[in-house]
Amino acid sequence: MRNQKSRIFKALIAISFLVFLVVTSKTITNRTRTALSDTANLPLGFFNSVSSGFSRIMPFASLREENRILRERINLLNRKIDETKIIYDENTRLKDFINFKKTIPYFTVPAQVIGRDPSNWSNSIIINKGANDGVRQSKAVISNKGLIGRVLEIGRRSSRILLITDPNSKVGVMIQRNRQGGILTGRPDGRCKMIYISLDSDVAAGDKVITAGFGETFPSNMPVGEVVKVDKEPGRLYKYAVVKTAEDLSKLEEVLCVK
Predict the structure, then answer these.
(1) CATH architecture of the domain with range 108-259
(2) Each residue of 224-234: pLDDT tens digit?
């Protein structure tokens, strides 16, 4: 196959040379010159088409390579943008966290969430601070949005926090608008339930719930959540309210332990 291509190429060169001689020669008649030119027209036209085709294909091959390089650069830039956004969001969150710590009227120990209790995944967390850092038993734990829970167990360098969504959690609370009191307990669905609400109370969806400040565990007037539903259990002499927590407890990363 390669030899055949070589022979064709050599024939085209020979024909082109003859045409050149015919065209430039003064001794060959015009009729002979015209006949030879017509004979060479087909192979020369084919040769010209092939040459033009190669000249068109070569730039496209170069463009494909250039596009590949540009796509790789775009992908790299997109990854860097994503990484930068993660860092920016983290810095913004930490800045808000630090500013909030400066505004509260009590001393706190900042801590990071490092895990969750596998036996109680949705209702307790593990933090990286303990007795050596000033964390105290049964004290409140908060975020910059509101109450999180209380210290349940303390180690030297870590602690377990019982979240307010745990059914074993009990917090004295009140409705901010009308000062209606009650007890906040956790629910298995990740929300809370405020019980012992008077039947004649006008508690309604949208009301803000805050801590009542009874005892030494939870400071008063701390945001807890918002009422999303009010109902009455059959046979009970009080109403209850379903409360959505102020903080999404499933996404906690930093907390403050009240001292």
Answers:
(1) Beta Barrel (2.40)
(2) 999 999 999 88
Residue 219 and residue 147: Cα distance in Å, rounded? 10
pLDDT in tens, 158-176: 999 999 999 999 999 999 9
Q: Which of 100, 168, 112, 111 has its CA nearest to residue 135? A: 111
